[in-house]
Amino acid sequence: MDPHLLKQLNAERAARRAALLLTDLGDGRDRLIRKGDALAGALGEAVADAFRSGKSTVFETDGHRYFLNVHVPSARLVIIGAVHITQALAPMAVLAGLDVRVIDPRTAFATPDRFSDIDLVAAWPEEGLRERPLDAYTAVAAVTHDPKIDDDALKAALDAGCFYVGALGSRKTHAKRVERLRAAGLDERAVERISAPIGLDIGASSPAEIAVAILAELIAALRVRKAGSP
Question: What does the alpha-carbon distance between residue 114 and residue 141 come to, in Å, rounded to a whole number?
């Protein structure tokens, strides 16, 4: 591989941006493609599919065979609130292959015995998110039901373009939340990205059932994305 291309690829990976190394198997020429770069025709569609799936593949078109070596950042989940739902959701998300972090300033909830083997941060979201900034390959689920904790995290998630942003609460609770976020400077389009009530509508009632609904909705947001999304 061209050392210059390798340097560019490593820079994209370090910045947690999706990139694809396109190799013409006929002449061995390489080309770096970043997600969002314009590429027309069938090859463009194949590249978009590779970004969407995260799987490398061989594609043939117009008498050329290409190897699409895709590099997509690993998906992360930040859960705001070390509550009962989180005790079920965090290990489920780990099993699904997500990098999970739980943030809650309430030390009575954020204890290692309640979240063994989970990256747990007993701090306010503003502090807990500073070390590992949010990005387009991060999902945020705010489940404390406390606006003093949830609201700042939700605003940060929307500002960062997280691929999934969900918040616990009834429609009435969410309507008040929307008013607060608008007052904080978020526009209507941004606020509409919040999934609330959080999770797929499967009639979930117990913490474990709600966790299943959240994880299913999150995975759908991750895997069923438009080709032009981050």
Answer: 18
Q: Which of 186, 225, 199 is nearest to 89 (CA)?
A: 199
Q: Identify the CA nearest to 99 among candidates 218, 203, 4, 17.
A: 218
- Cis before 112 (ω within 30): no
Q: How confident is the model at residue 124 (pLDDT cuts 50, 70, 90)?
A: very high
Does 230 reside within a domain?
no
DSSP one-letter code for 206: S
What residue numbers bound the domain in which 186 lies? 76-223
Does 107 lie in the same domain as 194?
A: yes
Do 92 and 56 fall within a single domain?
no
Beta sheet of 19-24, edge-to-edge order = 30-34, 19-24, 64-71, 57-61
**Rounded to whole angstroms, what are the CA distances from 18 to 49, 207, 228?**
13, 34, 12
Q: What is the pLDDT of residues 76-108, one digit of tens each?
A: 999 999 999 999 999 999 999 999 999 999 999
Q: Are residue 91 and residue 187 in the same domain, yes or no?
A: yes
**pTM as predicted:** 0.81
d(CA 106, CA 135): 25
Q: How many distinct structural domains can be found in the chain?
A: 2
CA atoms 210, 213, 218, 219: torsion sign: positive
